[in-house]
Each structure stands twice: as C-alpha cells, then as structure tokens.
Design goal:
alpha+beta, 6-stranded antiparallel β-sheet, 3-stranded antiparallel β-sheet
C-alpha cells in the first residue's frame, strides 16, 4: 500500500498551523531540503534532511545538515520549545538527527495494528510512504 502526500498539502498544513511558508525541494529519493526566508532582506535558512533508517514501526531516523548559524538556531529553538515537541519525536541537536517513533503517537496506534512502515521516498512533488499490511 502506498500513501502519497504532495508537497503542496504539506505546505498548506504548515502555513495554516504555523503561519510560515517554507520551500521543499527533493535532492534525491532519500534527501529533502527545507528552506525558509523569514524576511525579504535576510538570506534563506536551509536544512537538508536525509533519511537514514526505517525499522518497521519502531523508528524513522533522519540526519540533517545545515550551516553553523542554522544549527545553533535549531539547538536554541529545540531547547526553548522542548516541552512542545510531540512525544515520539526526539531531536538530537549535538548529532544533528531527528528520530521519530511512530508507535508513540496515539493517532497512529490503531493504524499500526494493521500496517508496517516499509519505505519512505522523496519524489519531485511528494513524499511517498510504502506500507505493508500485516
């Protein structure tokens, strides 16, 4: 079973929820670049996320690369809003990685009884999530 989430859907959600409009760009099937220009006179802030590991429904691990200034900004934001990061998402700023534990999300509990995550790929205009029914 494949689930396709278009970048426009993701950007619309982010715009409604957080009132920002980042840009998403596929680098390759395992790498996605997220850019954001806070104001017109500042340069864009870019972060590249690379899908490192998928272990069924246990963990999805992403590494990220960015400039030193952006890395420090991410560390500060994570420290300030640590209590607002959902259970099931771990951001390790010292190793520049994000670990997602799907089984820790209440919203996914029921679905994960029937499917197992097998792959995630970044396509030109979408994220494709492959699931296997169990």
């Amino acid at each position: 079973m494949n689930v396709v989430i278009s970048y426009s859907e993701i950007l619309n959600f982010i715009g409604r929820k957080f009132n920002v409009q980042p840009t998403l760009a596929t680098i390759d099937e395992k790498t996605l670049e997220v850019s954001y220009k806070p104001v017109s006179f500042m340069p864009s802030i870019s972060v590249r996320f690379h899908l490192e590991v998928i272990r069924r429904n246990d963990i999805v691990s992403l590494s990220y690369e960015c400039g030193k200034a952006t890395s420090l900004m991410i560390a500060g934001i994570v420290a300030k809003f640590e209590d607002k990061i959902p259970t099931g998402i771990d951001v390790d700023t010292s190793n520049q990685c994000v670990n997602i534990y799907p089984q820790r999300f209440k919203q996914l509990e029921k679905a994960l009884e029937y499917v197992v995550l097998s792959n995630i790929t970044f396509e030109e205009n979408s994220v494709n999530v492959a699931l296997i029914m169990v």
